[in-house]
Amino acid sequence: MTGPSFIDPERHQKTLLRVTLAVVISLSLLAGSINVFFLDSFRLAFFNGLSISFATLISLYYWRSQNLKIASWALISTILFNLIAVMLIAKGGAYSLMWVTVLPPFAFFLLGRKAGAWVTAITFISAVIYMYFQMPHSKPRPLTVGALLNVIEVLIVHFFMFLHYERSRADAYREVEKMSMRDRLTGLYNRGKLDKELAHALAHLKRNNQPLSIILVDIDHFKQVNDKHGHLSGDLVLEVFAKLLLAQRREIDIIGRWGGEEFLIICPNTDKKEAAQFAERLRSAVRDQTIAEQINISASFGVTEASGEHSAELIVNEADQALYQAKALGRDQVAVYASS
Q: Which residues does the annotation mark as catalytic?
């Protein structure tokens, strides 16, 4: 499989969700057993049982729906429920607050930077306010102002550390995603991204029955450019050609490098007559373009229109046949596929 189609930006979130649910169920079961059989703490065991029930329901829901967003919010709610239960049962005991620090990695990673920041900030502020009013009653000895300030400092560090981490992770993923779907030389979409866009365009055609055409473009005699002027000049030709296509394209068009000196243009809401007219404008613009070292080029264009029965492979094959016809006619031509 080529291009970005194999990249799943939610893969790690899905793994974290499944692992966390399994850990919550396992630890709650263990803690509940200890609370019942060794500590006689049935109130804590009751909350452990609720955690097991919530986590099990979330697991079943996610297994059936695969809705990561709702399952993630449900899991964060379960974690918050456990944190609140521990703090209330401990009546603000200083040790209970440390459990709040487990929230940021889950909130930021599962909910994203914006939602994770809001959930974490609200939880931290609420916990500090609660601890402040519980200070005189905390056991085994009252919590001092200095101790509370230390706790606040730790929570602030946690908040900004995970906020920065999530921002860095998101930026890194966007950069990798951009690199994975772009051709390094021309900056246009690469073959993998074009495959994906063409599949989407064909699916849209089948749903809405709107016209869809594609244009396959080939730079004429490109090998001669490399042989006569060198590969650096050949690269320059590709770069300039790509910029020309981008400058001439309509807002709805999707353009990418199909391979070598071939380029593919996906034209949504466009029938083959309109696509042929667009291709003719491109052909004329290419002829008028002079590249460094007085290199002049031309290009051949193959045009075809898709129907609801077309697969991606079939429509590209038709465009390729039209392109072959344009070359057979002497190149620097626009040819439209005609079914026999």
A: 261
